[in-house]
Automatic annotation (TrEMBL), chains A, B:
Domain Aminoglycoside phosphotransferase: residue ranges: 46-284
Superkingdom to which the source organism belongs: Bacteria
SUPFAM superfamilies (UniProt xref): Protein kinase-like (PK-like)
Organism lineage string: Bacteria, Pseudomonadati, Pseudomonadota, Alphaproteobacteria, Hyphomicrobiales
Protein name: S-methyl-5-thioribose kinase
GO biological process terms, semicolon-separated: methionine biosynthetic process
Source organism: Bradyrhizobium frederickii
UniProt KW keywords: ATP-binding, Kinase, Nucleotide-binding, Transferase
């Protein structure tokens, strides 16, 4: 990582331009291995802009032989427009993170085919027939391979970029390499850790039903202390290289395959933020499920699978992380020479368990933060949004918020992942008082 | 800090040479403001090499009008020789830290007069008649101005480089600016947080009297877990820009003045490491004092002053830090908008107290680590070393170690600084069992 090129201060000055279909065709024709993968004449390629994210242009290019995905960063937030500028350098950090993830968790991220720093553009393997996992969850689809894949991804990317696996010097180089991605971190700091708890122009929620709940959160000082502690941890605990935005919209799946995409929020932060993101988005899928059923109990099997998945995501992640630690601790933390002999080995193993318990507690807090922002902040998710009846949606959302509030403020009462799923199960049919 | 020049990868290639007396005279003659400050003809200047530290060359240059101090980094550890190389870039980080400290705590560091990146050389104000504080403490001298000065230095340098005062972007830029100083951090990681707890060639202690105690520490797995947690915190908690080596040998004093010198270990780390360093070195001065008395009780007033100073260093630091937080929290942590109104203000104030309580606990742990390394590691201090009779010395050291072990392993039982000084007072005349 130490030899990675630093991002350009302002790539726009050095040949950046937004690529449209015709430019893209010419550009791709000159990248020989991409052109070969597509096959046939460039004129025959189909190019479709499919970006449905908030920030970037995404093209799918298909030729006679195969397809690729092309992602280009825009110098502003796509969702909002030029009034909200955002550095192109995020494409550099995304590329850097993707390269590292490909090395640490092979086969679990899209293959990188080409990167152009000046154009803030990356060409990747086209994932077909994968779909965005969140869409599958809304439809009630179960993904039996998901637990195995996502826990391998998290355990390996987090462990191998932590002080348990790296020398302090390598770790500091990694931190410095991603320090410049602070504009993307700032989005998280504002939209997740601040705005949902105060009056902010960009907030929205299912009105009028959640008006009173929104006001309650804005007035809940225990919650404000809890979210502020999490925010500080997010800003100042560079434990490992995070994906930084690991929700079910950043995961593409088939029944047997999982690919993690879009790590443009990558930076060195607290591990619990990534793990909590996965858990939170599964829990939201669980609470949203009641809103998607056409007949009572119709989705019971799916809901059971979701909670089982929540439990296994934590337990399998913890198991794999511990396994890596036991087998390959080459980092400067917890040096083996201090834990020699049988007594040392036993004490170190107890400390590993304690470390994972601390990480669990932080994960629970971050999962809560990721939930509340999707219900009261700027960015919502289709799990809830696709529940057409707003009152039904508000009921599902209020259940999720009730659990999240407890997870954030009474974090210590959640000692195991079964405490979390047990609390979720109890709230499945709880009827909140709504406004309006 | 974002525009600061990055250190040269290998300054030796770009004009580095070790300056000897004659070169130094010619060099200084060409720096007009330094030459003017010295006064008279360059040939008349006296140049004396006085470096008694472990790493660098230090010259005192005096002319007809005044004097300056010149510090040049060597490409190796002076104490050991060329077999232990050490990057010259540390002079860059020292300069960067000194500049920042001068800005944040004016008058409490030596004035910077000149810096040459290629030569790894810095010219500073000559501190006269200041002496190294540790020497004064060995002699039993009280410094009534010390508490006020050191707590201002720590409160201001730590607060204003923390997330409480900076935006997350500024903070990350600061972290990145110092990330390259990892070779100096590594010295701390090895010599403070690892070696004293295992067999290591460079360890030494007052043998044979402390042989059994040394073996006990090497076998004490609770202590090994505690020191490993502190090491991890040191490596991965960039809370603020630390001095990084804030012992009483890095502080020069007169009865009314205090100057903090030598911040070449500066990096973004946990605040408790700096505060703990000051407390630990005062506590060692306290325990060493018994070994310096020629008649029982001779130094009682001094010892009383030392413990009072320990108490006031913490309480005044905490008071000033809280005052800065209340008055000037412009950082991204704990945003004011989440703590509006009377209820919010009261809750935030309680959280500030809780923050300081957490910092106190970490400070206690780091103070313990800084103590043990001076008794069993490579670098000892004259507080103990100048106790001529080794058995008397070992008794003082064993008392300090007993307190340090409790502070590190039973940290939670030390709730206030009076718990620390109370425990120290109880150990003043405790007679340890010695080996040999």
């Amino acid at each position: 990582m130490s030899t990675a090129p630093r991002p350009l201060a302002d790539p726009r000055r050095q040949g950046y331009r937004i690529l449209h279909e015709a430019d893209l065709r010419d550009y791709m024709a000159e990248i020989l291995d991409v052109a070969a993968r597509l096959g046939g004449e460039p004129a025959s390629w189909t190019i479709t802009e499919v970006g449905d994210g908030n920030l970037n242009l995404v093209f799918i290019v298909k030729g006679a032989r195969g397809g690729v995905a092309v992602k280009q960063a825009l110098p502003y937030v796509r969702l909002v427009g030029e009034s909200w500028p955002l550095p192109l350098s995020r494409a550099h950090y995304e590329y850097l993170a993707l390269s590292k993830q490909a090395q640490l968790a092979p086969g679990l991220v899209p293959a990188l085919l080409h990167h152009n720093e000046n154009l803030a553009l990356t060409v990747m393997e086209l994932l077909e027939p994968h779909i965005i996992m969140r869409k599958g969850l809304v439809a009630g689809t179960q993904y039996p391979g998901f637990v195995g894949d996502i826990t391998t991804f998290m355990a390996r990317t987090l462990f191998f970029t932590s002080d348990l696996a790296l020398s302090a010097a390598e770790k500091k180089e990694g931190i410095a390499a991603f320090a410049g991605n602070h504009a993307l971190c700032k989005i998280t700091e504002d939209l997740i850790f601040t705005d949902p708890y105060r009056i902010a122009e960009q907030n929205r929620w299912t009105a009028p039903y959640l008006d009173a709940l929104a006001a309650e959160l804005r007035d809940d000082m225990e919650l404000h202390v809890a979210i502020s502690r999490l925010k500080l941890k997010f800003m100042a605990s560079p434990e490992a290289l995070l994906h930084g935005d690991l929700h079910t919209g950043s995961i593409m799946v088939t029944e047997s395959q999982t690919r993690v995409i879009d790590p443009e929020f990558a930076f060195y932060g607290p591990m619990g933020f990534d793990v909590g993101a996965v858990l939170a988005n599964l829990l939201m899928a669980y609470f949203a499920s009641a809103g998607h059923e056409r007949a009572p109990g119709e989705r019971a099997a799916f809901e059971g699978w979701v909670l089982e998945t929540v439990e296994q995501v934590w337990s399998e992640f913890a198991r794999k992380f511990l396994e890596l630690w036991r087998a390959g601790a080459a980092g400067d933390a917890y040096p083996a020479s201090l834990f020699a002999g049988e007594k040392g080995a036993a004490r170190l193993e107890a400390e590993r368990q304690a470390y994972l318990q601390r990480l669990f507690t932080e994960t629970v807090g971050f999962a809560a933060a990721k939930t509340i922002r999707r219900i009261f902040g700027l960015a919502h998710n289709i799990d809830f949004e696709l529940i057409a009846d707003p009152k039904t949606r508000a009921i599902s959302e209020a259940r999720a918020v009730r659990l999240a509030r407890a997870m954030m403020v009474e974090t210590g009462t959640f000692r195991t992942i079964a405490d979390v799923t047990g609390a979720a199960r109890k709230l499945r049919d709880w009827m909140p008082e709504l406004s309006g």
